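Example 3.2
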Amino acid sequence: MNLAVLVSGGGTNLQAILDADLPVRVVVSNRKRAFGLERARRAGVPAEVVSHRGFPSREDHDAAVVTALRRHGVDTVALAGFMRIVTPTLLDAFPGRVVNIHPALCPAFPGLHAQRQALEHGARVTGATVHFVDAGVDTGAIIIQGAVPVLDDDDEASLSARVLEVEHRIYPEALRLLGAGRLTVKGRRVRIKQLEGPR
């Protein structure tokens, strides 16, 4: 697996991926001030900015991102707080190899402010989901989920902090499974191939 991580902000999930010693070949951001770029540099990983400004369409921006990724020999893309809806231009360049992490138990609470949505709906359990990316918003086949209880005194900040801890645990795990060839997708279902033990 030759991995690219796309970020727009602080990059805490990127840091979890870097700390897990996964083979990150490049980090790309659409924002030049994203702290995730600094995390990449500190880890000795190439960091590039492909600003979304100045492109006439999302597809044109994604084509520029694909060009940057190709320069680094990337075959797998992890979205880690990348605040852009990617288009088929990027998805078709890496078929079945683009993954995302979402701070909710998909299919519940897609899109922005998932923890706020959970609190407003009175959910008693929420969590995080690593999933393949498709043309929808947080609708792709689910790889791994981790649950978090919603406490009576939770607000958006406290709930988000606990969900983030789960994200940092499950994202590297999902990427390891993908890199090891242990995931098969049939329709919307993902199967994890079990390792054979000694006989």
